Amino acid sequence: EIVLTQSPGTLSLSPGERATLSCRASQSVSSSSLAWYQQKPGQAPRLLIYGASYRATGIPDRFSGSGSGTDFTLTISRLEPEDFAVYYCQQYGRSPYTFGQGTKLEIK
Amino acid sequence: VQLVESGGDLVQPGRSLRLSCAASGFTFHDYAMHWVRQTPGKGLEWVSGIIWNGGIMGYADSVKGRFTISRDNARNSLYLQMNSLTTEDTALYYCAKELSDWSHAFDIWGQGTMVTVS
Known about the structure:
Helix content of chain B: under 10%
Shape of chain B: globular
Order of helices and strands of chain A: EEEEEEEEEEE
Largest sheet of chain B: 7 strands, mixed
Distance between the termini of chain B: 34 Å
Shape of chain A: globular
Mean pLDDT of chain A: 96
Low-confidence stretches of chain B: none
Structural class of chain B: mainly beta
Radius of gyration of chain B: 13 Å
Structural class of chain A: mainly beta
Low-confidence stretches of chain A: none
Largest interface: A-B, 24 and 22 residues
Oligomer: heterodimer
Number of helices of chain B: 0
Strand content of chain A: over 45%
Helix content of chain A: under 10%
Strand content of chain B: over 45%
């Protein structure tokens, strides 16, 4: 199984700042089959990025994804108050599909 | 586009439970579907997936041999039969739809149904 390790565990930033979240895979993720999700308390996860770098429908362009192989990054260029949440990466290139443990983005 | 899970309950260890997920607003039989669970206060765990024609995409090791995923395209419904439940299966269970046949990311999620094994 491919293990995804996200860092940092918690990121404390202020609105307007840039956020950089990392996701490292234990094996190469095929065809950039890597997604990012945002989850707020009491809500289901929301797809932000698929294919490592493609924004899902309706996702603002301040969210961007990059990377390939084993190292992937989610960048939020300028944080808005609604962006403070937990973010998960997921690989769907090989079963069992796996998620990272999450990065909590909190207001500083 | 909506997914609505049901069937969650409080059950004793060793018992069985069947979860359902009703889909609406999209052509259900065109998409692979999945179950994902989340333990209280913790992260996400993929449970199982099924392609449009009923082919199984796999199971998490933690549920293999105990859980069975299935679908009924005529009823626009996804199911998860859970047998030999343990306290480790306590979680919020989500059903999720795949984005397309060329991307297995999950673009639509239900609100979840809670399973408590105690």
